[in-house]
Write a sequence for this structure.
């Protein structure tokens, strides 16, 4: 029986072999390639890059393959790789007005400069299983209008801003913001730190919190000022060059949420904003992030903090799927020492209660 | 601490002992601060590790930051060298740090542990690295970091005494069995990590350096050698440890922490030492 706790080494080695075997699945089927995952499971790749904080489609595809499609495990794999990479510095801030947008919508105005561009969206699909996908067969390419890459796409918010109806975005103070992957999260956190945390945060967690604000737990009356998805250039200024060079173009989804605000003692009534940004095409994530970002501004805007989504410590401490998944699942590790301690205590307590009850019965009999 | 500026580890895609040198320096700074202020939780820029949070990433980062080729590493989980997680962490360091490993407490220079302190007394020069899930002893009384930080700053620990008192009022004794709070050097209240209270007395005035790493919560704290560590109690309810009426079925020890095993369908029980090295040493000593 003592063998039960022995032999860990062999058991682990066998388990690793078995999980690799399960990953491959039936050998008579072709193995998935990373390109197939990148191209045909692109939204999964987008989520892994976003929450993995690493823009690399092939690495994300590899992580998804290795994790057998478990995206939270894939995010963990990518994070653990990312953390070993050297840091060169901060890129210049993305200018999303320079986005070559594949999709851009506003729900606050019927028409906006640059137009409403529906692009690829599931919004108006009928959720009927398409059985034609079950069979092999090529699909014709979808026709697209030519994109004018040179045309800047002004933000819908800018129009409201000019009227003073919408608060301007916070001015850049020239300081590089703290990198939460290098420095510990210390509360209270400033907005750049909060946004970094939310950008890496678990989509499901943010979705539920964002949803809770809509149902009255910290409501802030949101409208989608604008959602845009497309390619933006990333620029970097190397110290030794002293001028900006373009590194790459990346796909991002940006959500500018416009929220009602009654004003405070020193601010006239105006609309306020919540902001969401995600790698790739991830509208649900960007919107949820924007709702929670706005909710977390409660203190700054002198609103009462009454709900979980407004509670900075609650949100920021529990948003990370890698942390949450690890701590929940560590309960699978042996805890028999602590459990033994509890057994000893509970047995002693029970013994004392039984002893007391027996004495009470004896006392009663004696009377 | 030997020089570790060397990248020729057995897995050359990664730096020696996995972490890059900059990260190690950052962790060492946090450790030095922690040693200078015993029991104080120092925030550090904890990294994602290739093992999950909750598996000992804090302890692993501390070990990775202090280990060198001359070290001999022992890893235990629940007191045992052969539990799966201990095996896994030992394998990790054998691979990335090319370090000698041992199961013998006496031989080890660095001992990483989860949930136990070895029964064999530690010596000067040894380092005991604890894996810590929740570093904040006041967390279950006050979930907010901003609040608990203030409570520590003001040495405002009445809440914990009240919670222990409530336990006495309700149960007639302090029912806290593990992660039993201690006061370090008469100043900071500290979580000893989820070791059974049986191990608390070993923390007091120990000759070895104790380092505590919490990866998910990104905190490091320490108890330097020969530092007073007092388990909280009351004059009329002094601190006491677990006792068993049984002795170890393998080595006959009456002094060690015992694990209970259910050996048949009728629930028949057997008690053996949780510290496997201690138990084996005793069994061997008994042999003629």
């Amino acid at each position: 029986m003592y063998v039960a706790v022995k032999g860990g080494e062999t058991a682990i080695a066998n388990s690793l072999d078995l999980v690799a075997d399960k990953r491959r699945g039936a050998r008579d089927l072709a193995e998935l390639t990373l390109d197939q995952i990148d191209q045909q499971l692109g939204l999964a790749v987008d989520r892994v890059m976003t929450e993995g904080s690493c823009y690399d489609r092939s690495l994300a595809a590899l992580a998804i393959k290795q994790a057998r499609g478990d995206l939270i495990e894939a995010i963990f794999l990518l994070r653990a790789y990312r953390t070993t990479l050297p840091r060169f510095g901060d890129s210049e801030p993305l200018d999303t007005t320079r986005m070559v947008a594949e999709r851009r919508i506003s729900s606050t105005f019927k028409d906006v400069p640059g137009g409403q561009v529906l692009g690829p969206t599931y919004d108006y699909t009928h959720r009927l299983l398409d059985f034609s996908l079950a069979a092999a067969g090529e699909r014709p390419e979808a026709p697209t209008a030519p994109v004018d890459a040179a045309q800047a796409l002004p933000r819908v918010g800018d129009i409201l801003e000019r009227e003073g109806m919408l608060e301007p975005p916070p001015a850049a103070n020239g300081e590089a913001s703290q990198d939460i992957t290098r420095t510990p999260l210390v509360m209270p956190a400033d907005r750049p730190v909060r946004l970094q945390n939310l950008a890496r945060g678990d989509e499901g967690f943010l979705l539920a919190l964002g949803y809770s604000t809509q149902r009255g737990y910290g409501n802030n009356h949101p409208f989608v000022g604008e959602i845009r998805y497309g390619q933006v250039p990333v620029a970097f200024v190397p110290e030794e060059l002293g001028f900006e060079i373009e590194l790459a173009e990346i796909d991002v989804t940006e959500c500018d949420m416009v929220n009602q605000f009654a004003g405070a003692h020193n601010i006239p009534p105006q609309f306020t904003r919540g902001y969401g940004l995600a790698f790739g095409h991830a509208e649900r994530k960007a919107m949820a992030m924007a709702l929670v970002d706005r909710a977390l501004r409660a203190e700054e805007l002198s609103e009462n903090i009454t709900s979980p989504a407004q509670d900075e410590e609650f949100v920021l401490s529990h948003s990370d799927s890698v942390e949450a998944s690890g701590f929940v699942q560590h309960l699978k590790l042996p805890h028999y020492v602590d459990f033994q301690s509890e057994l000893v205590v509970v047995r002693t307590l029970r013994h004392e209660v039984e002893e007391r009850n027996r004495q009470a019965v004896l006392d009663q009999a004696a009377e | 601490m030997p020089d570790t500026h060397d990248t020729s580890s057995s897995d050359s895609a990664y730096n020696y002992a996995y972490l890059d040198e900059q990260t190690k320096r950052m962790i060492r700074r946090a450790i030095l601060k922690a040693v200078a202020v015993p029991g104080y939780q120092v925030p550090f820029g904890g990294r994602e590790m290739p093992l999950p949070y909750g598996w000992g990433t804090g302890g692993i980062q501390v070990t990775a930051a202090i280990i060198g080729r001359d070290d001999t590493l022992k890893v235990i989980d629940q007191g045992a060298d052969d539990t799966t997680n201990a095996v896994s962490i030992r394998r990790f360091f054998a691979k990335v740090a090319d370090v000698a490993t041992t199961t013998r407490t006496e031989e080890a220079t660095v001992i990483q542990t989860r949930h136990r302190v070895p029964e064999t007394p530690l010596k000067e020069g040894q380092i005991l690295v604890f894996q810590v899930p929740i570093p904040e002893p006041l967390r279950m009384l006050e979930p907010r970091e901003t609040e608990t930080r203030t409570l520590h700053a003001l040495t405002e620990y009445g809440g914990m005494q009240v919670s222990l008192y409530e336990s006495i009022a309700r149960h007639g004794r302090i029912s806290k069995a593990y992660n039993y709070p201690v006061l370090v050097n008469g100043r900071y209240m500290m979580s000893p990590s989820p070791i059974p209270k049986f191990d608390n007395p070993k923390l007091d005035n120990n000759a070895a350096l104790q380092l505590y790493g919490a990866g998910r919560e990104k905190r490091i704290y320490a108890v330097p050698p020969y530092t007073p560590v007092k388990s909280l109690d009351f004059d009329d309810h002094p601190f006491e440890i677990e006792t068993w009426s049984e002795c170890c079925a393998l080595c006959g020890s009456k002094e060690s922490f015992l694990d209970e095993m259910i050996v048949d369908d009728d629930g028949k029980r057997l008690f053996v030492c949780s510290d496997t090295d201690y138990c084996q040493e005793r069994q061997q000593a008994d042999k003629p």
About this structure: The beta strands of chain A are 100-105, 222-236, 245-259, 272-279. The longest helix of chain A spans residues 336-366.
